[in-house]
Amino acid sequence: MPVNPAHTALWPAPTVSEAVDATVHVPGSKSVTNRALVLAALASEPGWLRRPLRSRDTLLMAEALRAMGIGIEEGVGPDGTGEAWRVLPAGLHGPATVDVGNAGTVMRFLPPVAALADGPVRFDGDPRSYERPLHGVIDALRVLGARIDDDGRGALPLTVHGSGALDGGPVEIDASSSSQFVSALLLSGPRFNQGVEVRHTGATLPSVPHIRMTVDMLRAVGAQVDTPESGGEPNVWRVTPGALLGRDLTVEPDLSNAQPFLAAALVTGGRVTVPDWPARTTQPGDRLREIFTEMGGSCELTDYGLVFTGSGSVHGVDVDLSDVGELTPGIAAVAALADSPSTLRGVAHLRLHETDRLAALTKEINELGGDVTETADGLHIRPRRLHGGIFHTYDDHRMATAGAIIGLAVEGVQIENVATTAKTLPDFPELWTGMLGI
Ligand SMILES: O=C(O)C1=C[C@@H](OP(=O)(O)O)[C@@H](O)[C@H](O)C1
Ligand SMILES: C=C(OP(=O)(O)O)C(=O)O
């Protein structure tokens, strides 16, 4: 297979000797944008998405919905300011083909949508997408009445033979490998004939805030959802069948993508302001206020946004990241530069993310002279003096941003394929050098 030059290109990560002092406008949330697209597509009237994230994952979602017949017009908003997408719901059609890339949200949220289409919808994606868990969605849809052809591994590639409607009803799943199984079934649930009742039977459940995000966004478009938090049984979510409203939704900045910029303030003893940080949010990135404070910074949340200030010292942490797994690479990078060891727990499922993130972080930090060991469910990180070298990224956007954090403090770090950040943050190199005033 020919090697894509972008995949081997090296980006010299800038090193700084002075404290960073910058304001960084972080683009919209991937998780919110892709949920909003699905909900708007399933609504019974047109809707708007303002400040959507425009990245590989969200463009794949938009393209997939278009392939099934939904209108999505990219342009400026009704008041003429800022990017806004108009979503025009329509009957869902097959035959259609969906490229999921390596987007968990696309490969998991769309098979239930495809089950509502009136013909076959073929799903395919990057080689890594074949390895990422999808059995929870496939098995559940079969129980709920869908016909799906796969190669028997419970993974991509596959075809959902939509018949225009799905019975729905109760279903048990083990979502211990991805919270997105639960979110996927809930998002389309209002359009199933009997709604859906999802019962998680596994021993652990990662990324619970992302399930809350799904529930909040469903309720915001008029769905009735019963949850463990609203007095229901533990690990059971129930969605009542019903029409969804078309809304005008403004997407919050992606707080997980704010992480490298906040980390820059922490590592350099500087200050970074992120405008429009929401006062209340279900995004897991909000936990950074607490975790990075424990690691040596301090923060102030104002009407303008979040001001995060480093103290000049970086401390290790012992933290359970099961709720906020996508923050692990960035926390590991900061922990490798700290003045004491760290233990990151509760994230065994990261072995099945964009890459095996526990193995990748261990290997890449150790190749720069670090001392990281994998545990059954996380990492032990003992800081050491690091040196330059190539930081491989394995087509993982968060590996690239983790390498850039280390590069701030360690000369000669070269990030392989920084373009992989386009998955959720296409302007990363420009935002990074802009923050550093380069
Ligand atoms: O629903 C979502 O938007 C996400 C849920 C989480 O997935 P897992 O539960 O598979 O970790 C998270 O890691 C991912 O980045 C986004
Ligand atoms: C795990 C992630 O993405 P995905 O939505 O592809 O699961 C992530 O963004 O860290």
Automatic annotation (TrEMBL):
Pfam families: EPSP_synthase
Subcellular location: Cytoplasm
UniProt: phosphoenolpyruvate binding residues: 30, 104, 132, 180, 357, 398, 423
Pathway: Metabolic intermediate biosynthesis; chorismate biosynthesis; chorismate from D-erythrose 4-phosphate and phosphoenolpyruvate: step 6/7
Catalytic activity reported: 3-phosphoshikimate + phosphoenolpyruvate = 5-O-(1-carboxyvinyl)-3-phosphoshikimate + phosphate
Keywords: Amino-acid biosynthesis, Aromatic amino acid biosynthesis, Cytoplasm, Transferase
One Gene Ontology biological process: amino acid biosynthetic process
InterPro entries: Enolpyruvate_Tfrase_dom, Enolpyruvate_Tfrase_sf, EPSP_synthase, EPSP_synthase_CS, RNA3'P_cycl/enolpyr_Trfase_a/b
Entry EC no(s): 2.5.1.19
Domain of life: Bacteria
Active site: 326 (proton acceptor)
Alphabetical list of PROSITE patterns matching this protein: EPSP_SYNTHASE_1, EPSP_SYNTHASE_2
Keyword S-adenosyl-L-methionine: no
Binding site for 3-phosphoshikimate: 30-31, 35, 178-180, 207, 326, 353
GO MF annotation: an example: 3-phosphoshikimate 1-carboxyvinyltransferase activity
A single cellular component GO annotation: cytoplasm
Domain Enolpyruvate transferase span(s) in chain numbering: 17-430
Assembly: Monomer.
Listed PANTHER family: AROM/DEHYDROQUINATE SYNTHASE, PENTAFUNCTIONAL AROM POLYPEPTIDE
UniProt family annotation: Belongs to the EPSP synthase family.
UniProt function note: Catalyzes the transfer of the enolpyruvyl moiety of phosphoenolpyruvate (PEP) to the 5-hydroxyl of shikimate-3-phosphate (S3P) to produce enolpyruvyl shikimate-3-phosphate and inorganic phosphate.
Record-given protein name: 3-phosphoshikimate 1-carboxyvinyltransferase
Gene that produces this protein: aroA1
